[in-house]
Each structure stands twice: as C-alpha cells, then as structure tokens.
C-alpha cells in the first residue's frame, strides 16, 4: 500500500481514513494524511502488520458492500418514485374524467328538470282553463234551464212572439242544443243552426263567438 509506513502505529479511525483515501487515489507518494507517532520508536511486528492489513481488507469489503447496498437502495427509490408519479398521473386523469362526466350529467338533469317544469306549468294552465270552461258550461246550462222553466215570463208579448218566430225560422228545435253563445252564455241550438245565427235567439244579444259544449 503506497504511503504506508511500518514505523508508525495507526489508530482504527486513522486507518479507516487511510484506506478510504487509498481507494479513491488520494494518497500521495509516501506521505500519509494523519498519524500518531509513538515516541518510544516501537517498530510493529509482522503479526501486527498482518492484523492491520486484515482490518484494512475488511474495511474495504465493508465499504464495497455498503456502496452496493446504497446503489440498490437508490435504484429502488427511483422505481418507487416512478410508480408514485404514474399513480398520481392516473389518479388525476380519472378525477378529470369523473368531473367531466359529472358536469355532463348535471347539464342533462338541469335540462330534464326545466322540461318537466314547463310541462307542469302547461298542465296547470290547461287544468285552470278546463275548470273555467266547466264552470262556464254549468252556468250556461243553468241559464238555459231557467229559461225553459219560465224565464220567458219577463219578456213582453212582442219580444216573445219575435223570439218564437226566430226560433221557428232559424232553430230546428230537434237536435241537441250543443252551442253556447258569447258573451251572453245561452245554450240555445245545435251547431248547424248556430252557423246561421248572428243574434242569440233567447236574448237577442249579438253573438261575438260560439262555444261547442260536450255533455
């Protein structure tokens, strides 16, 4: 070993550093880095020298094993780091996909909810309209019944004759009375006869529109 001197007794720590420096080419010629010189000029025996050489060899082997273990640990750490990065990437991709699917699902739900609300609103409007028409039909039916039961007694004779003449001329009195006149609301004749009338045959009020009533 270059630089080793037999007249110097090295401690284990110093021998350790010496061997390390020797392995990495840091020993220059015959000059060691550090050593303790015993003042008694004791020269080591061959046995002591061999023991030191054996210890140095053991240190070298230990360092080589440690270096191999360190390299293996570094490779393992690199592999774990790569696996962790792949797992994070896959997780982020799945989260983005689920987020996109969730947003699309929310849009579909919102659209269907809006359509359902519009249909419900239309149904409510129709139900209200049907209720109004049913009430109006009941009123018309009641008015017609009143007229039939003697509501004409308030009319003058001339009006009654005129009404009867109109009925004879323009109302068949045979088919079912299915047409109501607006605005008076009287249900006075069938649909065929109503097409020929401009005035209500019961009250003589001008007809603005006609409503077909189904019993």
TrEMBL record:
A Pfam family annotated for this chain is: zf-C3HC4_3
Superkingdom of the organism of origin: Eukaryota
PROSITE patterns referenced in this protein's UniProt entry, alphabetically: ZF_RING_2
Q: Coiled coil where?
A: 63-150
Keywords associated with the record = Coiled coil, Metal-binding, Zinc, Zinc-finger
Instruction: List the InterPro entries hit by this protein, alphabetically.
Output: IAP, Znf_RING, Znf_RING/FYVE/PHD
Q: Name one GO molecular function term.
A: zinc ion binding
User: SUPFAM superfamilies from the xrefs?
Assistant: RING/U-box
- List each copy of the RING-type domain by range: 171-204
Q: Which PANTHER family match?
A: INHIBITOR OF APOPTOSIS (PTHR10044)
Name of the molecule in the record: RING-type domain-containing protein
């Amino acid at each position: 070993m270059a630089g080793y001197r037999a007249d110097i007794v090295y401690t284990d720590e110093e021998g350790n550093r010496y061997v390390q420096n020797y392995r990495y080419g840091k020993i220059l010629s015959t000059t060691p880095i550090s050593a303790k010189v015993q003042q008694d000029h004791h020269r080591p025996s061959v046995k002591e020298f061999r023991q030191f050489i054996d210890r140095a060899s053991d240190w070298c082997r230990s360092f080589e094993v440690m270096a191999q273990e360190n390299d293996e640990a570094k490779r393992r750490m690199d592999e774990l780091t790569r696996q962790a990065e792949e797992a994070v990437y896959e997780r982020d991709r799945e989260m983005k996909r689920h987020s996109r699917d969730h947003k699309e699902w929310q849009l579909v739900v919102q659209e269907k909810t809006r359509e359902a609300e519009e249909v419900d609103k239309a149904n409510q409007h129709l139900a209200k309209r049907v209720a109004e028409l049913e009430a109006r039909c009941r009123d018309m039916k009641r008015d017609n019944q009143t007229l039939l039961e003697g509501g004409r007694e308030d009319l003058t004779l001339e009006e009654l004759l005129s009404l009867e003449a109109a009925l004879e001329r323009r109302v068949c009195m045979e088919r079912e009375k299915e047409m109501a006149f607006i605005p008076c609301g009287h249900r006075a004749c069938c649909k065929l006869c109503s097409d020929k009338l401009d005035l209500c045959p019961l009250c003589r009020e001008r007809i603005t529109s006609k409503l077909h009533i189904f019993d």
